[in-house]
Specification:
- This protein is of the alpha/beta class.
- It has ten helices and five strands.
- It has a five-stranded parallel sheet, sandwiched between helices.
């Protein structure tokens, strides 16, 4: 049976007069308002809604100013690798002293384990550890780092039903008390939000900063490879990242 225009969601009816097929496709996929199709960067959800982001950027800002040694602890899948690369590039451009570790899961387990913290201390003597794409259940590793006076910031996207580790800052849209309305951000998306907020804070204070949107190629790659749901927010990130890749404004390889 055919669908009539007046059976479509009201907001899609003007579109249906131009392309009935498109309007039906969108309606079938649960997109009932053309606003959901907007891809401008200004349409991204504001970072302030991410629980813990203000604390995280305040700590990172101070660490850069003091020249503290920062260690990024990543993960070896594509999301973890792009998150690590994004943090390394953006923080270095802001003037941070930063190194990274990507743990061997067979040797050290998954996430910020006490063993990986010990390897990090031995190798880099960090004053701050930032996790990307992991850490939301690493209570023991956080305690091990804090025992050596290391500040810990966790950035992750994995689901959790437990209380978060007592790190100095935890940014994860899927932690219990976060009201950020896109739960589909992957690790690199969370890292992008933290860095974007940090860059803005430093720009407003007249400090060394960077335009984090230049790294959206990495965000698109990690989001797609980690099979992040393309809700409006992720679609915007991927749209701009793919455009950059097509134009050659991207990492080699």
């Amino acid at each position: 049976t055919g669908t009539r225009i007046d059976e479509l969601p009201t907001a899609l009816q003007p579109l249906a007069t131009q392309s009935f097929t498109l309007a039906r496709l969108y309606a079938g996929r649960g997109i009932i308002d053309p606003d959901e199709l907007a891809t401008g960067l200004s349409e991204l959800l504001p970072a302030e809604k991410l629980h813990g982001v203000e604390t995280a950027v305040t700590l990172l800002d101070a660490a850069i100013d003091k020249g503290s040694r920062i260690l990024i602890v990543g993960d070896f899948d594509c999301d973890g690798a792009t998150s690590t690369a994004l943090m390394m590039r953006a923080l270095t451009a802001m003037g941070a002293a930063v190194d990274y570790l990507v743990p061997d899961r067979f040797k050290y387990g998954y996430g910020l384990t006490p063993e990986i913290v010990e390897l990090g201390i031995e190798t880099y003597r960090p004053q701050m550890i930032v996790t990307v794409d992991n850490g939301i259940s690493s209570t023991e590793g956080v305690a091990r780092a804090q025992a050596d006076g290391i500040t810990v910031i966790i950035t992750d996207h994995h689901l959790t039903t437990k209380p978060v580790p007592p790190a100095e800052a935890v940014v994860n849209p899927n932690q219990l008390d976060c009201t950020f309305s896109s739960k589909a951000l992957v690790g690199v998306g969370v890292a992008f939000y933290v860095l974007g907020r940090l860059a803005k804070l430093r720009r407003e204070a007249g400090k060394s900063t960077v335009q984090v949107s230049q790294y959206l190629d990495l965000v698109a790659l990690g989001t797609i490879a980690d099979v992040g749901v393309l809700d409006k927010n992720n679609r915007i990130l991927v749209h701009h990242g793919l455009a950059a890749i097509r134009q050659g404004r991207c990492c080699i390889g």
